Amino acid sequence: MTVKGYGSSGQSAQPTNVQVIAPATLNAGYTFDAVYEGNTFTVTVPDGGVVKGQRFIVPFIPQAEATIMEASLLPLNSPNTRGNGTAEDSIPTGVWRDSLCDCCKFGPCHPSFVCACLCKPIIIAQLLTRMKMTWLGQRTHFRNTNLSDSRTEIDQRWRNTFRNIIIVSVVFFVLVTVVVPAPQLDPADPNAYENLSDSEKKLYSLNSSLSALLGFYFFYLMVQLRATLRHVYSIPEESCLCMYCGSNPRDGICSSGGGNCLCSAGVPVGWEDVCCAMFCPMCITSQMARHTVDYDYRRATCFSRAGVSNYMDDEAYEGIENVVGEGSVLVCTLQLRLPPEISWLQQEC
């Protein structure tokens, strides 16, 4: 059985949420031993049992001896109801709503796919607005508030995020097309750049620098967005763990804020966030859009501030504290000890 743990590495009295991915169908009440950071504890399968691949969460408090953790098991696959009391438009916790490659899930003309392909600034601005972040990738919590509580008071800067990013994009377009247009180079001529005059070379270099700067800006926003979504919805990293080279994946590339320029969102940024933003920008923006809104029940729009009709300000954060709690998921590998009578399960994992 695959077991993953996450949460802060705080005091021993604070529980760490441990995610279990069932390798086979098990009946309710079945127990097995797991090892987390050298501590052995006993996990009990929750009521209703589990099927192969199902995920559930158990709180873990480090102790010297094994402890049966059969209370407060939280199935990740069950729907999380939102403020309106329905589960249809709930936002999943613990796992992404769908795969990274499900961009065309709602068809090639769906706004989440069209904007991700052709108008990335728009969909990034919409996602930042949903998550109440500024155009600089900052979460708008007041200083000295607890980031682990999604209900904490926030300021209102996020309301201007969509407008600000559109302004940045328009200004960039005017600069690179009117103010400093790049000279046209003949792709068939290997010496095309050398044949340019000095003034044309300066224009070309300045145009390229502006394009690179804007590209890095949106890359940075995508990294902060994805890290924030994983933090808020308790989604663990499952790839790129080898890039930590012995450091604790729960701390990410940088810790949660502390003035680090890599973490303007105030959440740990992981290597998976960086790699996905670098190599799959279209896929991750579309995936984040689908995760934060259930388009099976909500109508998407291209040019609205949140990208969905009748969007309420607190939709992205409602109900989070009732599931596993914001910030509870960061990856750490665990071992599993299965009883001899079902040791055959080890061969299936």
Structure commentary:
With 349 residues, the chain is α+β, with helices and mostly antiparallel strands. It is 28% helix and 10% strand. It contains seven helices and eight strands. Strands 1-2-5-7 form a four-stranded antiparallel beta sheet, with no helix packed on it. It has a four-stranded mixed beta sheet with strand order 6-4-3-8, with no helix packed on it. Strand 3 (31-36) and strand 4 (39-44) form a beta hairpin. Helix 1 (111-118) crosses helix 2, helix 2 (120-130) packs parallel to helix 6 and helix 4 runs parallel beside helix 6. The radius of gyration is 23 Å and the shape is elongated. The N and C termini lie close together (6 Å). Residues 1-13, 64-87, 142-152, 329-338 and 341-349 have low confidence and may be disordered.
